[in-house]
Amino acid sequence: MRETGRSGCPINLTLEILGDRWSLIVLRDIMFGNRRHFREMLAKSDEGIASNILADRLKRLVERGLLSRRDDATHKQKAIYSLTEMGIALVPVFAAMGEWGRRFLPVTEELSIRAELLSEGGPALWERFMQELRHLHLDAPAPEVSVLNELTAAYRAALARRQSATA
Amino acid sequence: MRETGRSGCPINLTLEILGDRWSLIVLRDIMFGNRRHFREMLAKSDEGIASNILADRLKRLVERGLLSRRDDATHKQKAIYSLTEMGIALVPVFAAMGEWGRRFLPVTEELSIRAELLSEGGPALWERFMQELRHLHLDAPAPEVSVLNELTAAYRAALARRQSATA
DNA sequence: GCAACTGATTGCAAATTGAAACTGGTTTTG
DNA sequence: CAAAACCAGTTTCAATTTGCAATCAGTTGC
Question: Which chain C positions have some atom within 7 A of a protein CB?
């Protein structure tokens, strides 16, 4: 693994951790898709990540402090991956990237509906979402309303709309 | 399905353009350092980008629409790279990444002062900065005050502080 | 006992990266 | 005018990374 040492610029240091094609995809699936196990991330990946790449990225993200890994009590070989505060704090980065992608790139409707809601909700919604992630990943108390449920419901509705339209 | 792509997710599509170690570094130097020529980016790069990588990334970013390239009237071999609206619209992404990096990574003070100002200024400052970039890169009218000057002055002041402290 | 499932690892070809030298030309300097 | 410096890249080549398929060893449910 390459050692650090390009510069102390925040953008550069962020890129040294997240500047590749897969790290943010893995984090996105954990954050928005609530994928917590290896096989789940592997099988349900829209982008078709290879198992060696997934294993490598999970290991790196745990090493760098964005994820934590613990054993699953129900299965001795199952590992549960959770976001740390460092991972949860990426919500505004995802929101900014999602908004930019939605504006300039050929996104599909059902996959961009969550980005749209996140963008429209603004920092207040992001903070509620982060509270919910702290509940799901860090044993924080449960929030009153679930932002994730809203996002997922909107996604499913958009998906259903598209499928009935092309049926 | 898409021919060359992986999925229509905004995050994925954004990563297909910006998901590598150098693209955002190049854009950062053009945006915050006002580097407009090849040699300028090559020589003044804090991270020491190689010339073949820089050439490749500039070509790609022009192809994808984040930069434009034109000849310099003062020098027949000089090329001027400019941000397009698509490139300028990355300001909030840089702000979010900078804030995250500043919070969790071992940044150096003088290289993170601009990120700090951008973060504290919020969306209102970002919009003023983007207006200024439209002036510098897209022939828009000049804004009353220069955000870039403020950022650069703060960077230079921090640099001078550090150099006098370690002298 | 055994098939399915678990988080990975291995082997291999292809693509990408990075450092340094080099190219063909233009502009500045002495 | 000639040498030096400057210009945007390109070339070369070794090392690394990626992507894919097959495989692994242990665990679980039946």
Answer: 5-11, 16-21, 24-27
CA distance A73 to chain B (A): 31
Q: Which two tokens stand for residue B131?
A: 């207006």
Interchain CB contact of B54 with A (< 8 Å): no
Q: What is the pLDDT along chain B (167 residues), one digit of tens a residue?
A: 334 578 999 999 999 999 999 999 999 999 999 999 999 999 999 999 999 999 999 999 999 999 999 999 999 999 999 999 999 999 999 999 999 999 999 999 999 999 999 999 999 999 999 999 999 999 999 999 999 999 999 999 999 998 888 76
Angle between helices A10-18 and B23-33 (to 10 degrees): 170
- Read off the DSSP letter of residue B167: -
Give which of A1, A11, A67 to mutate to test B binding, by max B Cβ within 10 Å: A11
- Residues B163, B167: Cα–Cα separation, whole Å: 6
Interface probe for A, chosen from B1, B3, B9 (most Cβ of A below 10 Å), is B9
**Inter-chain contacts counted by CB atoms under 8 A, chains A and B:** 155
pTM of the predicted model as reported, rounded to 2 decimal places? 0.94
Alpha carbon distance, N-terminus to C-terminus of chain B: 60
- For B151, the enclosing helix (H) or strand (E) is helix B147-165
